[in-house]
Design brief:
The chain has seven helices and 16 strands. The chain is α+β, with helices and mostly antiparallel strands. The chain folds into two domains: about 170 residues, Rossmann fold; about 100 residues, no CATH class.
Length: about 325
């Protein structure tokens, strides 16, 4: 048995002996494991649990090289600590802000970049892209050429940031390679490092995405994951709330406005997600059995709901947020 052949979709070692273990395929002649084959052809998904410790070990190995690193992140679901990966890897690094296409067209690229330039985390460059719309992909390739220190360029980021989508776009645009990485809106699709030759001077090395355990995507059914993950430009929804009014997002989150002057709440979430306003929070106890977190909002801050999107709140005030205990929320100065 050839133990060296890896699945072209997720990078695990192929094996034909145990159907219950990762990497299983009915024949070692196949290029995809059974999991990737079924995901690609039937849209099925099987959960694979790996610890972030394993992923962090891979990232530390990347840090021992001198190679250029692309750090991919999702503009709608930015990590709270953007410096976490930057601190793990001392290499030259380009911050690639993906999924510009889901933000409203009124949002300017320059404003987004300026926001990150104030974050005081060093990157060689910050580039805004959209793999879905092929936006800035040519420019990104030029900057990769400019900064790369060898043929190898590593691709890192959290799950669902769009790493595989970007690599597949680079393959399609600039390579004769027929390989395609498995893509799924669910976490943990890429299980091991995968080398992809783009051309004579560039080999991309895809790494497993860090699993964000606080993402709402890890706490809902696959059907809801697809609903939450926007595929088209978001149409912001603004609600003017007075004290003692509420917003319900699906059956997932409740936000009570408990103290403050009349305020504006603008939601940047998938258009498929249902939102309802309650005119009197005392007359409806829906979702109040969930975990409550209180925030003292300052002027022009966002409430970020990990994996779902964010809500821009204009004035200061007190809010109570009810949601599942494992889902992370945090506040930040307004992105938009």
């Amino acid at each position: 048995m050839d133990n060296e052949k890896k699945c072209q979709g997720c990078g695990v070692l192929l094996q034909d002996e145990n159907v219950l273990q990762e990497g299983y395929t009915s024949s070692l002649e196949n290029d995809l494991c059974q999991r990737c084959f079924r995901m690609k052809n039937y849209g099925e998904y099987q959960v694979v649990t790996k610890s972030n410790e394993e992923y962090l070990d891979i990232l530390k190995e990347v840090g021992k090289t001198k190679d250029l690193v692309l750090y991919i992140t999702d503009l709608l679901n930015l990590e709270k600590n953007i410096e976490e990966i930057r601190n793990l890897i001392p290499n030259k690094m380009i911050l690639v802000l993906n999924k510009m296409d889901v933000l409203p067209k009124s949002v300017k690229e320059e404003k987004i970049k300026a926001y990150f330039e104030k974050e005081n985390v060093h990157f060689e460059e910050i580039i805004v892209i959209s793999t879905a719309k092929n936006y800035n992909i040519d420019y990104l390739l030029k900057r990769i050429k400019y900064f790369q220190t060898s043929k190898n360029v590593y691709v890192v980021g959290h799950t669902n940031a769009g790493k595989s989508s970007l690599i597949n776009k680079l393959i399609k645009n600039y390579s004769n390679n027929t390989q395609e990485l498995t893509m799924s809106p669910l976490p943990s699709t890429t299980l091991s490092t995968i080398n992809i030759d783009i051309n004579d001077y560039l080999t991309l090395i895809d790494t497993p995405g860090l699993v964000d355990t606080g993402s709402i995507l890890n706490h809902v059914e696959p059907k809801m994951v697809k609903k939450i993950s926007p595929k088209t430009e978001i149409k912001p929804r603004t609600y003017q709330l007075k004290k003692n009014q509420s917003i319900l997002i699906e059956k997932l989150i409740r936000i009570d406005y408990v103290e403050g002057e009349k305020n504006s709440f603008t939601l940047y979430v998938s258009n498929d997600v249902k939102v309802k306003r309650l005119l009197n929070l005392f007359h409806n106890n829906e979702l109040k059995e969930k975990t409550k977190i209180s925030y003292q909002m300052k002027y022009d801050e966002d409430l970020v709901i990990n994996g779902l999107g964010f809500i821009k709140i204009v004035n200061k005030g007190t809010i109570d947020v009810y949601l599942d205990s494992g889902v992370d929320t945090y506040t930040r100065r307004s992105l938009i």
